[in-house]
Amino acid sequence: MVGKSYILWYSGIMIKCKICGQKFSLITGTHLSLHDWDLSTYAKKFGIKGCGFLRPNLLPKNDIRYKRWKESLKKRPVSWSKGFTKETHPSIAKMVETFKKKRIDNFAEWRKKAVKLGIVRADYPSFKKSGSLAELIGAILGDGHIEKFPRTESLTIACNSNNPGFINRYADLVKKFFNKKPYIKKISKEKNCIRIRIYQKNISKRLGIATGNRGKSVIHIPNWIIKNKNFLKRYLRGLYEAEGSFCVHKPTCTYKFLFSNRNQSLLDNVYRALKILGFHPHVSQYKVQVSRREEVYKIKNLLKFRQY
Question: What is the structure's pLDDT at 1?
């Protein structure tokens, strides 16, 4: 099997550089250096078609060069740093401390170049207030979690694997607001659990949601949501999609539209929002319920509950 770039080269097809528009038999690192680019950066942004030699890990998995490289890895000796981190390896740890004391940033030049090329984000602006943002906030408050790390934050939304509509809807909303495709994975230790996750800076600040466990924290409905009934409906939809249920048992004439959560302030928020929208909810332990038959169907349709 021959790589696509070589097929193009042998056939005499000219490739246009996506940066300057010049035509070449192959896009090479020599040419890209004139633009302060390298092949790996170019390939990530525009694809490997027409590129010259690339690092093997950037080649398609069905490329013979990639397969040979993977086989060659089995023969390589174990890396000297295996089992260590920069904090635990004696030599690296010493260098790290020296750099900290002297305030040396050895990635400064790389970071400037990466920002210029768009590989690394330079700013994280506030989100535009909208119904979609209100719904995402509701879903995160219901089934989400924000964790803080030394240099970034993570957002995780837990989903039921039997509800692909929920997974697709909120993965799309996360991608829309954070301009980044989230990582979606089934958790082997937890039956039927799938997690939507991204890592990015200032997630908590931009969403207005605290990091860490919110089990006993006091949660308020943002003013910009409570002042707009359309935003309030979308906020409730996010909460109900995460923690709500619709129950009908006709033999006993039982109709329930439920929201369940152990955070009392979140239950109060749902109760207040339903009252603003003209419903008659009642509260029991860890639940807010709408039980009038007409209202149960009305609120379900109003929120478009489970309609994907």
Answer: 39
Predicted confidence (pLDDT) per residue in 161-212, tens digit: 899 999 999 999 999 999 999 999 887 777 788 999 999 999 999 999 999 8
pLDDT for 238 equals 96
Those residues whose C-beta lies under 8 Å from the C-beta of residue 225, and which sit 6 or more positions away, are 134, 137, 231, 232, 235
Domain membership of residue 10 (yes or no) is: yes
- Same domain, yes or no: 65 and 94: no
Provide the domain count of the chain: 4
What is the span of the domain harbouring residue 135? 131-207
The token duo for 141 is 């408050």
d(CA 240, CA 255): 16
Distance CA 190, CA 30 (A): 50
* 5: exposed, middle or buried (Cβ count in 10 Å: 0-12, 13-18, 19+): buried
